[in-house]
Design a protein that fits this description.
CATH topology of the largest domain: Rossmann fold
Number of strands: 9
Radius of gyration: 21 Å
Helix content: 40-55%
Order of helices and strands: EHEHEHEHEHEEEHEHHHHHH
Shape: elongated
CATH architecture of the largest domain: 3-Layer(aba) Sandwich
Strand order of the largest sheet: 3-2-1-4-5-6
Distance between the termini: 25 Å
Bound molecules: NADP nicotinamide-adenine-dinucleotide phosphate
CATH class of the largest domain: Alpha Beta
Strand content: 5-15%
CATH superfamily of the largest domain: NAD(P)-binding Rossmann-like Domain
Largest sheet: 6 strands, parallel
Length: 311
């Protein structure tokens, strides 16, 4: 698709997600003008060096003036303060969305600031890598990935359709969902795996009996696969944990119960139970490959470099 969809798009936050959006917006000519704003001058300068937009504006309130689509790509804990800053200068009729990994909290933080004249539709592209910053983005990040929209009740259907069309032009498939349901699903498929990875890598780092050099040297035995997730941005993941607390705690308690059951099977030498579980989990991976969400290569798609995003 190469048809201009919005006269002006403003991106607030130009890290991995914001800069990937900038690249696809330019490649597919989805905006007449692309305005970029971010918190630190250093990041804004880098975005300009990378030629990610048409205009670079430090002040977010100034940057959203006359924008038809505003996309906020900042850590979820900052979405309320950004909403407050831009509220007074949003164009009537504009669509305002975000890409945050938690939805109920973003809705609660942003909605009170949103003027009744704009269409506020939170969103979450299920695509990412462990990298951050404007250099990390790439135009194909959203290709064949899901984007979940969580429009508040009563949102204008045409605005939802327009935002959906934008994400489809970025390569994504669209689902709409209740924010609390989103948060529960994501706690399982994304937040829990990251927390487990942070924990296991932390445990290995703390271990005194195995030297760190051995952990690194023999990492291909399994440990390496956790380190990719555990290298994810600390600010982003601190905010995810703080802003999806209830759903994460629920998933963690189920996980702990299942882990205790697995521990018991190992202790009592219950090979059948172990074999059954490991067979069931192998089928799950097969389904993910069949759904086109992973590549079935011996290196888990690492050689495919950037397109092998897995979040
Ligand atoms: P990132 O690469 O670390 O970039 C974050 C951006 O937000 C930077 O441009 C940063 O600006 C800006 N920012 C931080 N605090 C801000 C504030 N208080 N006010 C204004 N701008 C601020 O992060 P990211 O990976 O793109 O993540 C952005 C959002 O996408 C998060 O909500 C995350 O949950 C969500 N998400 C991430 C992934 C993923 O895999 N990474 C996937 C899906 C959704 P400065 O550099 O100028 O400080």
């Amino acid at each position: 698709m190469s048809e201009m969809m919005f006269d002006r798009i403003t991106l607030i936050g130009i890290g991995l997600i914001g800069s990937s959006l900038a690249r696809i917006i330019r490649r597919e000519s989805l905006a007449g003008e692309l305005v970029i704003s971010t918190r630190r001058q250093e990041t804004l300068t880098r975005a300009e060096e990378l030629d990610l937009g048409d205009r670079y504006v430090a002040d977010a309130a100034e940057a959203v003036k006359d924008a038809d689509l505003v996309i906020i790509s900042v850590p979820v804990g900052s979405s309320g303060s950004v909403a407050e800053r831009i509220a007074g200068t949003l164009k009537p009729g504009a669509i305002v969305t975000d890409v945050g990994s938690t939805k109920a909290s973003v809705l609660a933080q942003m909605q009170p600031h949103m003027p009744a004249t704009v269409h506020f539709i939170p969103g979450h592209p299920l695509a990412g890598t462990e990298k951050s910053g404007p250099d990390a983005g790439f135009a194909d990040l959203f290709q064949n990935r899901w984007c979940i929209l969580t429009p508040p009740e009563g949102t204008d259907a045409q605005a939802i359709e327009r935002l959906g069309a934008f994400w489809r032009a970025c390569g994504s498939n669209i689902d709409t969902m209740d924010p609390l349901h989103h948060d529960m699903v994501l706690a399982m498929v994304s937040h829990l795996p990251h927390i487990i990875a942070y924990n296991i890598v932390g445990t290995a780092d703390d271990l005194q009996t195995v030297t760190k050099s051995e952990v690194i040297k023999y990492s291909a035995s399994g440990f390496r696969d956790f380190t990719r997730l555990a290298a994810s941005d600390p600010t982003m993941w601190r905010d995810v944990c703080l802003h999806n607390k209830d759903a994460i705690l629920e998933m963690l308690s189920r996980f702990s119960e299942d882990l205790a059951s697995l521990q018991r099977a190992i202790r009592w030498g219950d090979g059948d139970k172990l074999f059954d579980l490991f067979t069931r989990t192998r089928d799950v991976r097969r389904s993910i490959i069949e759904a086109g969400q992973e590549i079935d290569t011996p290196d888990f798609g690492r050689s495919a470099a950037k397109p092998a995003d897995r979040r």
